[in-house]
Amino acid sequence: MPRYIRSKRFGGTFFFTVTLKDRYSSVLVDHVDLLRECVRHVKSKRPFDIIAWVVLPDHIHAIWRLLEGDNAFSIRWQLIKMLFTKKLKERMYDRKVFGKVVFGSMRSSQMTI
To answer: Among 91, 75, 73, which residue's Cα sits nearest to residue 37?
Structure first.
């Protein structure tokens, strides 16, 4: 398990790598439209700026800037992952295809700009 110190800085810019537990899965690129929809939804409820975002088959790299007075990036990731998993299960159920999506670890470090 990765060891990192979670930043408590308010209004900072952060780099993230979020991985799937199954590193051989391509679910993120196969359903990138659903991922976009989930990110838009979370952004509308808990605003943040996306500086950069790269979606690869089994993981995501992202740089976010949070608003002044805000440091709750982990809640945003939790909401994105829960919503994506829920909507993906619904989509797979509709197609009669069953599978399990489990997100692995999230590593972050503060970027200085």
So the answer is: 91
Q: pTM for the complete prediction?
A: 0.81
Buried b (16+ CB within 10 A) or exposed e, 49-71: eeeeeeeeebbbebbbebeeebb
From the list 25, 22, 51, the residue with the least C-alpha distance to 111 is 51
Query: Which of helix, strand or coil describes residue 111?
Result: strand
β-strand partners of 19: 59
Question: Per-residue pLDDT averaged across 14-23, rounded?
Answer: 89
Q: How far apart are CA 2 and CA 61, in angstroms?
A: 16
Q: How many residues are recorded in the chain?
A: 113
CB-side exposure of 57: number of CA atoms within 13 Å? 5
